[in-house]
Design a protein that fits this description.
Strand content: 15-25%
CATH topology of one domain: Multidrug efflux transporter AcrB transmembrane fold
Structural class: alpha+beta
Protein name: Swarming motility protein SwrC
Keywords: Membrane, Transmembrane, Transmembrane helix
Organism: Virgibacillus dokdonensis
Distance between the termini: 45 Å
Shape: elongated
Mean pLDDT: 85
GO molecular function: xenobiotic transmembrane transporter activity
CATH superfamily of one domain: Multidrug efflux transporter AcrB transmembrane domain
Radius of gyration: 37 Å
Pfam families: ACR_tran
Number of strands: 30
């Protein structure tokens, strides 16, 4: 090849190109975005709509259903789900993979705009958002102190603006604290005395608090803008607002109500390590580096702490970059350890420091050059791309080993250094290119893989492919050039025989003896191989299956739910009991964040209800504790079951690539009430399945409600309608926002409300007076009836049909086995007609991903065969070589069984990679047998010559590949659990397959050769 010849003759040029690539690689590395996992592009959109004070039933009928109906016709939509709860509607749109989401969102917006007119006037505008997993907080910061009100002010005025100015920060959300509010406490007696109503006060405040530009006038040669100003500038302005009475008299607001600058009624309580707090969740900009953003924030906190009030403390609660950095560091450490092991193996075989340097340079050059390609393809630096480099570490030197060995053989024949380098590299370059191609083509079927499997497979495949391509270029350019300069001394030393040579000689002799035996017992050899494959498949039930291994990130969540309708104070009492039970675990808890009456960290700080509390805990790093997060979760769960009066669930949190619960059963049918009964029955049934942990239904206990039904005919007699009655009830019991008041850049609600003693008891509802348009008041019970009942917390639908979910965590068993048992249990249930179930969650994702990967595996095997057929220009020899593939099953099953690891997506990816790796040793062996036979050697002699002579390079390439992955297989460090199945699969699969390659492939070669001879002989007779 001309490239090889040029490289040997132009060493300075080659060196300068390598130096330039190393420099560019270093720059690219600094520019790569660092994250835990690759970017996950989910084809999901959300339509969120608020409908203040509406019950779930009204939200479903008036908001969710019209929106569902409108968007269901948008092209590309696969599933439409909705959740209707008090005050809000959430419609989730899941599109088919490959859908142009930008165009789809435009279509969704148009569809929603068409139904805006039929939505209630009190409803907010539907907010259409693209679901982006990257838009999750990178850090939570807690502002703690004694005075929660002052903490809120400090957060809003100092901390939030300061943090939003930091590099890479997208936005900062605030949870907890107290929200300032101007309260107008109405005096019912004064309203009657002056003959006015709360509606009149609202109208007066709203119409007075306005400023606007109304045109321009000329004054000389200038145009003056006319502006009418009337916005409230002080509380006194609000107090002195004039309200018109029915008699025409005027009174001021402070004559009718007490004006207070106060805080909104507590909707919840936020505690960090037991102290009242305001929690800030910090989101990064989309393309920002998570680790850099977190570092910037931590540095900036030191600066702002100096300006905070003396009683306020600002501390990091959870920093997601810590686990990312530890995971990245552990993978880098594994790469370094693997690299050292590979170089040691090379030194052991080559017996020369110079020869080892020649080949060893392939590793850093290939890795650093890979960063350039990763940068230009938009990949991030994460545990999967780095894991790909770690997996490809041993393979990076394979091409260089083959080239160097052949150069060495030419040198032994007396060729000069330059001629040996050119001839040796040129002769084997096509074979090396073909061998690398077989490894690379297995990644092409990735185009048929969708979902999470594709998100995992693509970055890893690109990292391995880039490193192998660059190592191939190094093998046919840099290795020949360096060999022509450095190998002379190595050759002089190579005649020395040492212990490893003697050991290899002993291995060679034993191998030759076994090879003779298998060639003499071909049927027995084939039978034993088939028996071993079948026997390994028998291990499948003991191995099991899971979706993606969860990394021990040390985060757990405790959800506390008291009886629906419980007060915030009652929930706080339960929280106090939980805190006491958590005392024994304080040594392993680094941070304890509690949101009482809120949605917690997992819900992004969204509000919930007073009967709920959510704990989010960060444990100390896994290396500093004796137990895993799962074990601690089980112990805490057992401890908290002793608390009466609340339903408490504990589970570990996974911010990785596992989406949804391990077990998710979707129940569908025409009626919500029947689904509730079925879901409770399902929970009871699956609780009996071994491995099921904390099953729960989405059907919560009903919320106590007082239903008020307005009699339209009676109301009409008094000149009233439904809306007027509803408005007055709402005013008395929840208050209404009349306008906004701005002070020093802060905006707050001006809310009209009745005194607490007029709106807290059931008697207040029965005694309530309704103002009629004519002036007189009547009792509410004159136009309405009361009925106490229970109402749903939320209502779910899927594809315009009621739905309910039963979810569960799993423990002590693999997901695949548990799913089979759950399905069997559900099949034995007698569901009413019109009702059905579907298995979703991680179980469904696993099934779909395994199906896609199985198709990719079949296509990969075909591509490997096609490449070899082109290389050999023969259909038969590739078929012989591919008999090495089935033997990988033995190694894979044995490896997973010994390691106690279930089959998962990473393990499946390892199997696909094996399809391209295991044939390389067979190619080397069969190619050399054919070469010897073409030189006139008899078949049996050629096999006995080729096997032992190729044993050394086969051992060298196999051992470098396998041993370089050992650190990954041992799962050393944080986050290594994800790559462990992949490494175990390749190590055992390649190791066992290599043994069979050296013994089975020669036997298969002779069998096919005999078959060909028989067919040829019969053909000649004809």
């Amino acid at each position: 090849m001309k490239l090889i010849k040029t490289s040997v003759k132009r060493p300075v040029g080659v060196i300068m190109i390598v130096v330039a690539l190393l420099a560019l690689g270093a720059v690219s590395l600094r520019s790569l975005t660092v994250d835990l996992f690759p970017k996950i592009d989910l084809p999901v959109a959300v339509v969120a709509t608020s409908y203040q004070d509406a019950a779930p039933q009204e939200v479903e009928n008036l908001i969710s259903r019209p929106i569902e109906s409108a968007v269901s016709t948008v092209e590309g939509i696969e599933t439409v789900q909705s959740q209707s709860q008090a005050g809000s509607s959430l419609v989730l749109l899941m599109f088919k993979n490959g859908t142009d989401l930008d165009q789809a969102l435009l279509d969704v917006r148009e569809s929603v705009d068409q139904v805006k007119g039929v939505l209630p006037s009190q409803a907010g505008d539907p907010n259409i958002m693209r679901f982006n997993p990257d838009q999750l907080p990178v850090m939570w910061v807690g502002l703690t102190g004694e005075n929660v009100a002052s903490l809120t002010e400090t957060a809003d005025e100092q901390v939030v603006p300061f943090l939003e100015r930091q590099g890479g920060v997208g936005s900062v959300n605030v949870e907890g604290g107290k929200e300032r509010e101007i309260q107008l406490i109405l005096d019912e007696a004064k309203l009657q005395q002056y003959g006015t109503t709360s509606q009149a006060i609202m109208q007066a405040l709203s119409s007075t608090n306005q400023s606007a530009s109304v045109g321009t006038v000329e004054k000389g040669d200038k145009d003056l803008q006319i502006r009418v100003t009337g916005q409230f500038e002080s509380l006194e302005d609000i107090k002195q607002t004039i309200v018109q009475t029915e008699s025409g008299a005027t009174v001021h607001v402070n004559d009718l109500a007490e004006v207070k600058d106060d805080f909104k009624t507590d909707a919840g309580l936020t505690l960090v390590n037991g102290k009242p707090s305001v929690v800030l969740s910090i989101l990064k900009k989309t393309d920002s580096n998570t680790v850099e953003v977190a570092t910037n924030i931590e540095d900036s906190l030191k600066e702002i702490k100096q300006d905070l009030p003396s009683d306020a403390n600002l501390d990091v609660i959870i920093d997601t970059s810590d686990f990312i950095q530890m995971s990245i560091d552990s993978v880098v450490q594994n790469i370094l350890i693997g690299g050292v092991i590979s170089i040691f193996i090379l030194l052991l075989f080559l017996k020369s420091v110079r020869a080892t340097i020649v080949i060893g340079l392939s590793i850093p050059i290939a890795i650093i050059t890979t960063f350039i390609l990763m940068y230009f393809t938009g990949e991030t630096l994460n545990i999967l791309t780095l894991g790909g480099l770690a997996l490809g570490l041993g393979m990076m030197v394979d091409s260089s080993i083959v080239i160097l060995e052949h150069i060495y053989s030419y040198r032994q024949r007396g060729y000069s250094l330059k001629d040996a380098a050119i001839q040796g590299a040129t002769e084997l370059a096509p074979a090396v290119i073909a061998s690398t191609t077989t490894t690379l083509v297995v990644f092409l079927p990735i185009i048929y893989v969708e979902g999470i499997a594709s998100d995992m497979f693509t970055p890893l495949a690109l990292a391995v492919s880039f490193s192998l391509i660059t190592s191939l270029v190094v093998a046919i350019t840099l290795v020949p050039m360096l060999s022509s300069k450095l190998l002379q001394k190595a050759l002089q030393d190579s005649g020395k025989r040492y212990w490893f040579d003697r050991f290899l000689g002993w291995i060679n002799a034993k191998y030759k003896k076994v090879l003779k035996w298998v060639l003499g017992h071909r049927k027995t050899t084939v039978f034993v191989t088939i028996l071993a494959i079948v026997g390994s498949l028998a291990l499948t039930p003991f191995i099991g299956a899971e979706f993606i291994p969860s990394a021990d990130q040390g985060q757990l969540e405790i959800r506390v739910e008291t009886t629906p309708g419980s007060s915030l104070e009652h929930t706080e009492d339960i929280v106090d009991q939980v805190n006491k039970e958590l005392t024994p675990f304080e040594s392993v808890i680094e941070t304890n964040y509690v949101s009482v009456g809120g949605g917690g960290m997992a819900a992004g700080g969204g509000s919930s209800s007073g009967n709920q509390a959510v704990y989010t805990m960060q444990l100390i790093p896994s290396g500093e504790r004796e137990k895993t997060t799962v074990q601690i979760v089980q112990e805490i769960d057992d401890k908290l079951q002793e608390i009466a009066g609340a339903e408490i669930t504990v589970h570990s949190m996974d911010s990785g690539m596992n989406m949804g619960d391990p077990i998710q059963i979707q129940l569908n049918g025409p009626e919500h009430d029947m689904l509730r009964d079925i879901s409770e029955q399902v929970v009871q049934e699956i609780e009996q399945v071994e491995g099921i942990y904390n099953p729960e239904s989405s059907a919560s206990e009903g919320v106590p409600q007082m239903n008020i039904e307005v009699d339209q005919e009676k109301a009409a007699l008094y000149g009233l309608n439904q809306e007027q009655v509803l408005g007055q009830i709402q005013m008395q019991f929840t208050g209404q926002v009349a306008t906004k008041y701005r002070e020093e850049g802060q905006e707050m609600d001006v809310t009209l409300m009745y005194p607490e003693e007029k709106r807290s008891k059931i008697e207040d509802l029965h005694d309530m007076k309704i103002q009629t348009p004519q002036g007189p008041t009547i009792s509410l019970d004159e136009v309405a009836t009361f009925k106490q009942m229970s109402g749903p917390v939320s209502l779910q639908r899927e594809n315009q049909q009621p739905q309910m979910n039963v979810t569960s965590q799993i423990v002590d068993r693999d997901l695949g086995s548990i799913t089979q048992d759950v399905e069997q249990t559900l099949n034995n249930m007698d569901l009413p007609e019109g009702y059905n179930y579907e298995i979703g969650g991680q179980s469904q994702d696993m099934t779909e991903s395994f199906t896609d990967l199985a198709i990719a595996l079949v296509f990969s095997i075909f591509l490997v065969y096609a490449v070899m057929a082109v290389q050999f220009e023969n259909f038969l020899f590739p078929l012989i070589i591919m008999f090495a593939m089935p033997t990988t099953v033995i190694g894979v099953m044995l490896g997973l069984f010994i390691a106690g690891i279930p089959l998962s997506i990473p393990a499946f990816i390892g199997i696909i990679m094996l399809a391209g790796i295991v044939v390389n040793n067979s190619i080397v062996l069969v190619d050399y047998i054919n070469l010897l036979r073409r030189k006139g050697m008899e078949r049996y002699a050629a096999i006995l010559e080729a096997g032992p002579s190729r044993l050394r390079p086969i051992l060298m390439t196999t051992l470098t590949t396998i041993l370089a992955m050992v650190p990954l297989a041992m799962a050393l460090g944080e986050g290594a659990e994800t790559q462990q199945p992949l490494a175990v699969t390749i190590i055992f699969g390649l190791g066992i397959s290599s043994i069979f390659t050296l013994l089975l492939i020669p036997v298969i070669y002779t069998l096919f050769d005999d078959l060909t001879a028989k067919i040829t002989k019969r053909h000649k007779k004809k």
